[in-house]
Amino acid sequence: MASQEPPETRRTDRSHWNWLLVVPIVIPLLTMLFNKEEPRLAGFPAFYWMQLAFIPLGVVTTLVVYRMTKRKGD
Questions:
Q1: At 54, which helix (H) or strand (E)?
Q2: Does any domain span residue 4?
Q3: 64 with 57: CB under 8 angstroms?
Q4: Is the dihedral angle over the CA atoms 24, 25, 27, 31 positive or is it negative?
Q5: Is residue 23 part of a domain?
């Protein structure tokens, strides 16, 4: 008796947009960008407010990659 399972389809998630996800990983590793006290923002040294700024950077980057790689009809 033949199986009624659908045929296997090849994954098509190999998009060049996925490389953009490297940005929020690499930027926080570049400590020379934020290893300083100045400029201060609301009294906080650059180190602290830049660390917090990396969170929206990661969210926005993930959102862009998701939107650009989303299949039509999903």
A1: helix 46-69
A2: no
A3: no
A4: positive
A5: yes
Alpha-carbon span 48 to 52, nearest angstrom: 7
- Nearest-angstrom CA–CA distance, 52 and 41: 12
Q: Does residue 2 sit within a domain?
A: no
Q: What was the pLDDT predicted at 70?
A: 86
Half-sphere exposure of 9 toward its Cβ, with a 13 Å CA cutoff?
4
Residue 13: its pLDDT value, please? 67
Q: Which of 9, 11, 12, 47 is nearest to 30 (CA)?
A: 47
Q: Say if 7 falls within a structural domain.
A: no
- Structural domains counted in the chain: 1
pLDDT tens figures, 3-62: 677 766 666 668 899 999 999 999 999 989 888 888 999 999 988 999 999 999 999 999
